[in-house]
Amino acid sequence: MSGKRGPSTTAVHGVIHRRAEWSPVAPAIVQSATYVNPVGSDEHILYAGDGNTPTQVAVGQKYAALEGAEAAVMVGSGMAATALAHLAVLRPGDHLIASRWIYGGTQRLFDEELARFGIAITYVSPDEPRLWRKSVRKGTRAVFVETPTNPLIRVLDLEPILKVAKEFGLALLVDGTFASPINFRPLEHGADIVITSATKYLNGHSDAIAGAVAGSASFIEEVTRLMRLWGQAIDPFAAWLVDRGLRTLAVRVERHNANGLAVARWAAKQKWITKVHYPGLETHPDHAVAASVLGGFGGMVGLQLGGGVAAAERFLSRLRVVIHAPSLAGVESLISEPRLTSHVHLSPEQRSALGFPDGFVRLSCGIEDAEDIIADLEQAGR
User: Fold this and answer.
1) What is the dihedral of CA 13, 18, 21, 23, to 10 degrees?
2) Start-end ranges of CATH 3.40.640.10 in the chain?
């Protein structure tokens, strides 16, 4: 068996090799923090804090294969992945162009921390593609986008962004958390670096915190150097949990895709839901782009409830199957209000300007039976 393997095979097996007789089928957890060092050796030590122990390395290699990258590194969280990826390409005095449609925590990182290092940020609304070129300065070094976006599930056309990045020699960083490498692989569309919160679809069971960065071998070498200095290595047990989740990634995402579409189609018919944000609906502004670049439309659905905060709180308090909790992409359906979680730092007016006024809830459809998710939403909305 040779050649490129499918994503499900890769997610299960990673780098394929013939297993030794009597070897375990499930990979062992190598939980040791440190290892016996040969006397007089000048080779780099094995140390979990450096992220180079067997369990840590194996899951990074598997993720790289899934993204089609030369290399990847697993780190302690999605925000660690975002921070390290940007620190690897930016220096004090540099300029970053970023999409305005991004996770609230990422925007705070840019505004509060990158700015503290003397890195300037210009935000561009992706629905005004001409602004990508107009925002380039002498010191511009990189462009960052998120697609699909949090929380409105907008799907960006990378082509005009990539064209500007190539013209000016800029690194293009893409956060693809909401898609997972099953539905979208940014490197195949011209990105230089892909970032993900492995807490979400890669782990998929709401029981580990992790992040990952994938790209060229030289870039990952620099990210790894920074990870060791800033102390953001993934714990070996968390790495094992991510690997355990990866083995069912493809089949889980297939169910997430089916449930997300079923829920979105049902929600679009409900009068008490004033707007549904889901790229699989033909009414979504990015449906054509999503249909052309995504392998599936995902399990994330944005619901705008009529009646604002009061309606949202009443709805959330009546749910039984769907769990009111932050995060997303677990096997269980989760729902949250971005006004109190990811975008709590913004005013109601600012959130409304971004397209999600009070009364907006973000639903992560799990892998339960779609009929049960819908029945729970329906009874809660009566």
Assistant:
1) -30
2) 7-246
